[in-house]
Amino acid sequence: MSKAIIVFILSLFSFNAFTLDLSYDIPLDPHYCDSNPPECQPIPSIIPKFDFHPYTTKEQWITFATYQLLDIYTTSRALEYDCIKEVNPLFTDTPSDTRLFLTKSAILYPILINNYGWQDITYSELNTSNVLYTFVIVNNYMLLNDAKQNCIKVK
Length: 155
Hints:
This protein is mostly helical. Helix content is 55%, strand content 0%.
């Protein structure tokens, strides 16, 4: 008899009348915030807002300086061939190595050193400059290799 009572009680728990419906249908109202503006206001943050600006790194500046020297070197090497001319309007068709170095220094020195301008340059600006000079140097090497095969060395 006790087994029958236990089976009866257990069958009651499996009966669908005792199951709970935990679903909740949220009414979707696209104009909810228009009709309830106080509830849609953002919660004020107690955490102060910080503007994070990554500093330029030592490696970026070393890369920048190296790229400037490589630009001078590759330009100078390419100008040793008769078919290569400098297209920069600040130079003659075949400027000397000294003029290349002094002109680049005269342009970069006041921008970077005067009034600590190098501190105002952001991480992304220096990265952009380095990427740009990567393409300049690659272009110079491509022109140099082409000139070695197809042109006469004059210097």
